[in-house]
Design a protein that fits this description.
- The protein is mainly alpha-helical.
- It has helices at 2-18, 39-50, 54-63, 67-78, 81-89, 108-125, 129-161, 164-172, 174-199, 209-221, 256-261, 264-279, 282-304, 309-346, 349-360, 374-386, 390-435, 438-445, 453-463, 472-484, 488-500, 504-517, and strands spanning 202-204, 227-231, 240-243, 251-255.
- The model has no long low-confidence stretch (mean pLDDT 87).
- A 4-stranded mixed sheet has the order 1-2-4-3, sandwiched between helices.
- Helices cover 71% and strands 3% of the residues.
- A hairpin with a 7-residue loop joins strand 3 and strand 4 (251-255).
Length: 523
């Protein structure tokens, strides 16, 4: 979980930089000394342990998950790491635009800081060099598995962005942008099981009693998965997970430590618990909720702050922060629902409770972001055996939350779809102008009676050129010729068309000329 927190913090830091939250200092070399920052909380934890202050040591270890992200924030927003890379590479490096592959260099400090934190955690956990080596290897695998979706996004986006026609249409046409985002999300979800199986040390559970047990549970649940794998963690983690959507891509992971700790009945309960997440459509419902928060936040931002990027961005970030806390709240209850499903399927509450107690061990009172503590989960399951109807009432409440999430997504998607449909014609027209498709723009403008006057003037000016496509160089020459004959309005429109073709310098010239003429940008 610490690695995922670091990745999410890093994306938040890059978002702040996009909104201009930087010191203005460009001293990227200062990112190197920050390598030692993630060691600090573990040094404080060690000192607390030596003084017998175990609660303080636990707090420092919890806080340690934030330190790689904090160091990354200092490198990016404080010391201009990205600006230094941009000077070195000769181009803009933004994760939120069409990323070049070089944007992966932005995350180099994060990798170093996270590996430092992993090393510090291993040093605190064991005095054995061999044990520390295994802990480092396991932590590094977990971290790089967290980075894989990020890397896949960069590679896929860079490939699409290299095609000018496709890139510009996705940039300008809101409906194309939404479709691209949806396809990218689906592709990443489909690839995730294969990426994790590649990144993590996994092997197929061989034929034998254990596999026969799991297959029997799957038959009882009418459940299919592509594969059941052993997750080799070197004995460092007792956990199970299900990844992927649909029988053809879904995999189920059982860690080596979990398989070693639990008896067959307990393992059957754990497998039934994982099946419950698939049968309950928990992942699609989580996606519906996050899209509801994201689309809803975007709609609120556009309605309240259409001209203020700071307030609009803050509204969107606030909606995502609310989703973060709500996700934890809902996830903890879905874990309880999965426990109940396992008991209902197998009719063996003792096995489920025993599995939880074995895995919880000495940490049975410790809760997490996505899980209640073992003590609370066991207490809830024991209550359901004593109170008839409690399980059904609990599931009914969760079903209402699930239905609400899907309903909110559908409503927000409908409003967003309506907006995209209204903007579609104008978006396509701007794409035509940026691509130099002037003949298509002439046809399309006749279908847009409510088009803004400034943009309509550009379409008329593009039609006056006399041929379908003009590059930025020709448009610059036409602007100069217009200025020679004192036709400043025509020169402005040629410069604006040239700026749309990708010439930023012509855009600056157009802004200066517009200021002299008292004209605004094309709408």
């Amino acid at each position: 979980m610490g690695s995922l927190v670091s990745v999410l913090l890093a994306l938040g830091v890059l978002t702040l930089r996009e909104y201009g939250v930087t010191s203005g200092i460009v001293a990227g070399w200062a990112a190197l000394p920050l390598y030692f920052l993630p060691y600090l909380p573990y040094a404080f934890a060690r000192a607390a342990l030596l003084r017998g202050r175990f609660a303080a040591a636990e707090r420092w270890q919890r806080a340690a998950a934030l330190f790689p992200g904090l160091a990354f924030a200092a490198a990016v927003c404080g010391f201009g790491w990205v600006e230094m890379l941009e000077r070195w590479s000769g181009g803009r490096l933004s994760f939120f635009e069409w990323p070049r592959l070089a944007v992966l260099l932005v995350f180099v400090p994060l990798v170093l800081y996270e590996l430092a934190g992993i090393d510090a955690r291993a040093r605190l956990a064991s005095a054995s060099a061999q044990r520390r080596s295994r802990l480092r290897a396991f932590g590094a695998r977990m971290f790089f598995a967290s980075l894989l979706p990020l890397g896949a996004y960069v590679v896929l986006s860079a490939a699409v962005g290299a095609n000018e026609h496709l890139r510009i249409r996705i940039e300008e046409i809101g409906a194309w942008h939404a479709l691209f985002a949806a396809l990218l999300l689906v592709l990443l979800v489909l690839l995730l099981p294969f990426l994790l199986a590649f990144a993590l040390d996994t092997t197929r559970i061989p034929e034998g009693p254990l596999r026969a047990l799991f297959e029997a549970v799957a038959r009882a649940a009418k459940f299919r998965a592509r594969e059941i794998l052993v997750w080799n963690t070197g004995g460092n983690m007792a956990n199970a997970a299900i990844v992927g959507l649909g029988a053809r891509t879904r995999i189920v992971l059982f860690s080596d430590a979990l398989l070693a700790q639990l008896e067959p009945r307990e393992l059957a309960s754990v497998y039934a618990h994982e099946i419950a997440h698939a049968r309950g459509n928990h992942v699609p419902i989580f996606v519906a909720w996050v899209l509801a928060f994201f689309l809803g936040g975007d709609l609120v931002a556009q309605a309240l702050f259409p001209a203020n990027e700071w307030l609009a961005g803050g509204t969107l970030l606030a909606s995502l922060a609310l989703w973060y806390f709500f996700f934890g709240w809902l996830s903890r209850r879905y874990e309880l629902e999965a426990d109940l499903y396992a008991i209902a399927l197998l009719g063996d509450p003792a096995a489920m409770i025993s599995a939880l107690e074995r895995v919880g061990g000495a940490l049975r009172d410790l809760a997490g972001w996505r899980h209640f503590s073992t003590a609370r989960r066991v207490a809830f399951l024991e209550r359901t055996t004593r109170e008839p109807g409690l399980s059904e009432r609990f599931r009914a409440r969760l079903r209402r939350w699930s239905i609400l999430g899907v309903a909110l997504f559908l409503v927000s998607a409908a409003f967003e779809g309506r907006r995209l449909a209204q903007d579609f014609g104008g978006d396509c027209l701007r794409a035509n102008l940026r691509l130099g498709e002037y003949a298509a723009a002439q046809v399309r403008v006749r279908e847009l009676p409510e088009l803004g006057p400034e943009l309509r003037k550009l379409v008329v000016r593009a039609g006056s050129i006399g041929h379908d496509v003009a590059d930025a160089g020709e448009l610059e020459q036409l602007a100069r010729a217009a200025l020679t004959r004192d036709d400043a309005q025509a020169a402005l429109e040629y410069l604006q068309l040239g700026a749309l073709r990708g010439r930023a310098d012509l855009g600056h010239q157009a802004a200066e000329l517009a200021a002299r003429l008292g004209a605004g940008p094309p709408q």
